[in-house]
Amino acid sequence: MKLLGSLTSPFVRKVRVVLAEKKLDCTFVPEDVWNEDKILKINPLGQVPCLVMEGGEAVFDSRVIVEYLDTLSPVGKLIPPSGRERLEVRIFEALCDGIMEATVKVFLEKNWKGRTDAQRSPAWIERQMGKINAALDMLADRVGERNWCTGQHFSMADVTAGCALDYLVLRCPDLDWRSRHPSLVRLQEKLSQRPSFQATRPPQP
Predict the structure, then answer these.
(1) What was the pLDDT predicted at 89?
(2) Which residues partner with 148 through β-bridges?
(3) Tell me, what DSSP letter sits at residue 132?
(4) I want to staple 164 with a disulfide (CB 3.0 to 4.6 A). Which of 96, 116, 118, 146 is the partner?
(5) Per its UniProt entry, which superkingdom is the organism in (predicted)?
């Protein structure tokens, strides 16, 4: 298998963390996400992460990829098979994916070279920041005093939460979420000690 992606993409990192936690062999191929002609040949959506199977079949969207990877090995099961426990993990994943999506939009609106400063929209940035802060409030409330996002076990919820929080540090360093959410600080510090997170830490600017 080959994983195509960017070292700074939180969605790519999410997949890389799962590969490390599941101890699965996969070659990582760095890709320029703006080289659409190249990526479109593999993924019609022109997005990463994209997992290329041994037969050449492409699997895309981080949620689809990680769910498939979780079935490949019994080591460190990350997504419960059914019931309310599975629902809770997937809700956490969706919430944290939403934080990452909004953060990407803020970063691009502020930095994309295809627009001039006059073309950038402060209202759009404010809207996305509102989503981020509301999602952080909910995430902190749900984590509370738990050891992990969904209780006593490390799961996909924690993978995505860790990637989302680290991406906020990378792309929105001025956002002061730590003073408001000590439970998330505790969770981030715990996750940062795992080898899977240390090995996939994005390059710093």
Answers:
(1) 97
(2) 151
(3) H
(4) 96
(5) Bacteria
Whether 2-70 and 83-194 share one fold: the answer is no
**Are the C-beta atoms of 197 and 8 separated by less than 8 Å?**
no
pLDDT in tens, 56-103: 899 999 999 999 999 998 888 999 999 999 999 999 999 999 999 999
Contact 79, 70 (CB under 8 A): yes
> Measured in Å, how far apart are the chain's first and last C-alpha atoms?
30
CATH 3.40.50.2300 fits 83-194, yes or no: no
Q: Is 109 in contact with 125 (CB distance < 8 Å)?
A: yes
**Annotated domain spans of the chain:** 2-70, 83-194
Angle (CA) 74-79-84 rounded to 5° is 130
Parallel/antiparallel/unpaired status of strands 27-30 and 2-5: parallel
Q: Is 54 helix (H, G, I), strand (E, B) or coil?
A: coil
Asked if 21 and 198 count as a contact pair (C-beta separation under 8 A), the reply is: no
Q: Which two tokens stand for residue 38?
A: 């190249």
* Predicted TM-score (pTM) of this structure: 0.95
Distance (Å, whole) CA 60 – CA 144: 33
